[in-house]
Amino acid sequence: MSVRRGAALVLAAVLAVGGCTSGSAAGGGRTEDGQPGGYIAADGSTRTWAPDERGEPVEVAGTDFTGAPVDVAQWRGDVVVLNTWYAACPPCRAEAPELAAIAGDYADDGVRLLGINGTDDAGAAEAFERTFDIPYPSLADTDGRAVASLQGSVPLEAVPTTVVLDRQGRVAARILGLADGSTLRAMVDDLLAEPAGDQEPEQA
Q1: How many CB atoms lie within 10 A of CB 86?
Q2: pTM, whole model, 2 decimals?
Q3: Pick from 82, 30, 42: nearest CA to 59
């Protein structure tokens, strides 16, 4: 085996188990994890936040690849799973079947999934969705607004990143890189099981 082919196989393996990036991470300072600005962490690491650590609800809105408006504020009361992806990203393709399965398995339990894609045009994105039978929408985020609305809560330079919002729309958990299905399901189950007192009161 040539050195070049060996190096390519190693790189492919790293991308398959970790994450990839659709562009270089910006600049200076440090992320909320204390890493230097520009650091890309996509090793499948996880973090969860207790209810009193979650801060304010996040605002994620835009249009999907069919042009339909999507606003997670309208999903308050449901657990929401956000997943950044793009079609040519190997770990995004690897995790897609499990994300589709989770969407189906939890459809009647008050769980919604939403993709965020800042790279692809509609043709590439919709082809990906057909290939993997994705049953949930994805925001066409070429202007970066949806991702920007999550900055400060989670570092989203690495793709894929999966963020789970509680019923109030607050960041409660995240996975950097390839999402393990059992781990993500456990995060969702924990949020569904939270006492009603940790959730947003019903509107009159």
Answers
A1: 22
A2: 0.79
A3: 82
pLDDT of 121 above 70: yes
- Lowest mean per-residue pLDDT among 89-93, 145-149, 186-190: 145-149
- Cis ω for the linkage preceding 160 (within 30 of 0): yes
Pairwise CA distance, residues 161 & 172, whole Å = 14
Residue 43: the pLDDT is: 72
| CATH architecture of the domain covering 41-198 | 3-Layer(aba) Sandwich (3.40)
Exposure of 135 in the CB half-sphere (CA atoms within 13 A):
13
Q: Domain boundaries in the chain?
A: 41-198
Q: Which residues of 135-154 are buried (b: 16+ CB within 10 A; e: fewer)?
A: ebbbbbbeeeebbebbeebb
DSSP E strands, 29-86: 46-48, 61-63, 69-71, 79-84
Q: Which residues does residue 88 pair with via DSSP β-bridges, in sequence order?
A: none
Q: Is 69 helix (H, G, I), strand (E, B) or coil?
A: strand
Alpha-carbon distances, residue 79 vs 27, 74, 124, 139, 200 (angstroms): 33, 12, 28, 18, 12
